[in-house]
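User: what does the whole thing look like in 3D?
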Amino acid sequence: MNTRKYLLPAAVAGVLALSLSACGGGGGGSTASSGGDAAANLDGRGPITYVQGKDNSNVVRPLVDKWNAAHPDQKVTFKEQSDAADQQHDDLVQHFQGKDANYDVVDVDVIWTAEFAAKGWLQPLKDKTAFDTSAMLPATVKTATYGGTLYAAPQTSDGGLLYYRKDLVPTPPKTWDEMMSMCSIAKQNNMGCYAGQFQKYEGLTVNASEAINSWGGKIVDDSGKAAVNSAEAKAGLGKLVEAFKNGNIPQEAITYKEEDSRTAFQDGKLLFLRNWPYVYNIAGKTDGSSKVADKFGIAPLPGKSGPGASSLGGHNLAMSVYSKNKATALDFMKFMTSEETEKFYATQGSLAPVLGSLYTDPSLTSKLAYLPVLKTSIENAVPRPVTPFYPAVTKAVEDNAYAALKGEKTVDQAVADMQSAIEAAK
Amino acid sequence: MSTKLPERTTAGAPAQTHHMPGRESADRKQVTQGRWASVLLVPTLVLLAVVIIYPVVNAIIMSFQKDAGLNPATGFFEQGGPAGFENYMHWLFQQCNGQSCPPGTLGSQFWNAMGTTFFFTVVTVALETVLGFWMAIIMTRSFRGRSAVRAAVLVPWAIPTAVTAKLWFFIFAFDGIANKLFGTQILWTGSEWPAKWAVVISDVWKTTPFMALLILAGLQLIPDEVYEAAKVDGASAWQRFTQITLPLVKPALMVAILFRTLDALRMFDLPYIMTQGANNTTTLSILVVDQIREGFNSAAALSTITFIVIFLVAFIFVRFLGANAVGAATSSGRK
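Assistant: Here's the predicted 3D structure for the full assembly of 761 residues, as C-alpha cells:
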C-alpha cells in the first residue's frame, strides 16, 4: 500500500500547514469597483456616524457633543478606530467593501484620499454636496482633489519645519547649500550637522519627496502618471546622497524615524533637524529632558533658492457614497471644518488648521508659537503623490531612495528605477 | 546497541475488545457506535470547514482573479476578471505587465523574501535546538531552585513577540545598549548582515525556552533505570548521551523542531517591527501583508504559494524525518 504510506503524513502536514498559514489568508471579498450611487440620498437627514482614529487628545468628543446638543434629530455617533494608521486604513477598506451605510463621514489620511476616490467610495463634493474650500490653504485642497474633482474636505494639516540651534547659528539658513556651508560649525562643536528621517518607511518617502520637490522635480504629474525621471529629481535626491557621503548627515541617520531624530536633536547631537511641529513643545520642555530647551529656533525648510517644498501631513473628511443621510453628513463636515472648530483643533489637539487666516490669529499664536513659520512651510508645500496607487508609489520611492542613500545605487539609477516601479503599478 | 530497550507494552498491542456474549449483537453495537461517532464528529467538521477550509478555498479562488485595475479614461478602478495563472507568474517569475519587475516593486522581492525566510528558519531553528537542548539538560537535573530556573527560562517566551521586537529594537538602536556594551558603532538595523543577525538573535532569545520546554518534556519520559543500567555496563557520559538520551528524546525533539520550523517559516512581527523589512529582512509573510494593501487577489496568490511551501516542508518532516505530531498518538501500531 504505497499510497497509504504517504496519505497520513500528507494529511498531517496539510493540517499543520493549514492551521499555521490560514491566518495569513487574503483580506477577503473582491474589490467592488462600481461603488455606490453618488446621486442617491442627497437630501437624506437623520442620525449619522463619524469614523476616526483614536481620539488621543479628546478633540472629537466635545465637538460631537456640541453638534448633538444643537441637532437632536440628526445625532452623530462617534466610532473610534485604533491608534495605528495602517489599521485605520484597513478598517475603512473593509467597511467600504461591505457597502456599509453606517460609515457616513470618515476621517481619511491625505495619502489615502485618491485611492478611496478612485475606488468609488467617496461622495464627490459638487452640485448638491458642494463644499467651499476658498478659505483653505491651496496645498491642503490639492490632497483632497482627485481627477479635478474635490472628494474630501481638508480638516487638519501638517508640514515639516527646520529646527536649528540658535545658540550656534544666529540666523537660520534659507537654502540647502547655505545650510551645508554651516556644517563646519557642527564639526567644531563635535556634533552631527543635519538629519531628517531616513529609515526605510513612510518617513523616507516624506524626506525624499521634499528633496525632489524642492529642486523642482515631481514624483507623479497632475494626471497621476510617473514623472520622477527628471534632472530636477536627480539633483534633489543627489543633495541628500551627497550629504550622506560627506558626513554632513551622520551615518546613524539611516536608522532614524521621527522619534530617533528628535532624541538626537534634544541630546544636542544635531545642529539642524527636519521634523514635524510636535517636536516644538517636547524639545522646549524645561524639566531637564531636553538639553536644548532654550537653545533652538524654527525656520521653514531650506530649499534650492528659498524655502523648500515640505511634504504635507494631515487628514481630510470624506463622505461615504453609501451614506443614507448625505445632507446631514455635509452639514456635519462643514461644522467640523468651521473656523471655530479649526481653532479648537489647534488649541486642544495641537493640530495645524487648514484655514490660512488662523495662522496669524493672536489667540492661537500665543499658544502655538510655531504657527507663522508653519504657514510658510505649508504654503510652499507639495502634497505627497496624489495617486490611487499610493502604497506602490511610496514603496517605489522608499526602496530606491534608501538604496541611493546607502550608496548601493547611483542617484540616476535610483530615480530611473523609481520611475519604472511607479509605472508598474496598474 | 548494547543497551536494548524494553518495548513499550502498550505499543503494538492491538486493542483487545472484551469478549462479547454474541457476535451479532457486537456487530450491531459497532454499527450504532459508528453512526454515533459520525454524528458527534459533525460539529467539529462544520467548525473546521468554516474556519479553515472556507478561507483557504476562497483565497485560492481569489488568487485566480485579477486585481481591480485603474481605467485611465474614467480614473476609477474596474473589476479585473479571471486571471488564470497570471498572479502566480507575477510572483514566481517576477513578471510585472509582461516585463521583469523593476526594483522597488513587491514583485521583484519574491525570491529574496523566500531566501530570507529560509535563512531565518534554518539558522534560528538550528541555534534554538542546540541551546534549547542544553537548557533542557540543565533543567532536568535536580538541584535547589530548579523550579525557579524553569520559571525564569520561560520569561522570554511569555513576552508577546511585538513587545520583544520593540525591546530588541531599542537594544540595537545606534545609541542602544548593544553598541554601548561592546563599545561598537554598528548600525544594527542599517545594513544587511547586522540587521539579519539582530533578527536572529531576538528570535533565538525569544523561542529557545519553547524548544527547551518541549525537549525537557521528552527528557523526563526517559526512566532513570536505563541510565543506571548503562552506568553499570560502564558507559561513559558521552555514550549515555548519544546512545540513550538522543534516540529516546528523538520523537519529542522532532516534534519540537517541526513546530519551530513551521513557526519560523511564517515569521512576521520581529523583522517587521525591527527593520520594516529593510536590508533584505523581508520575509514571505511581510511581503503578503504589504501586498494586501496593493491588491487582495495577488496577495491571495502569494499566500497560497507560502502555504504550499510550508505544506511541502511539513510533509518532508512528517514523511521522511519521522516527526509525527499527530501520528505518534494514533498509529502507534505502525512499525
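In plain terms: Chain B touches chain A through 72 residues (CB under 8 Å). Strands of chain B lie at 69-71, 76-78, 95-96, 99-100.
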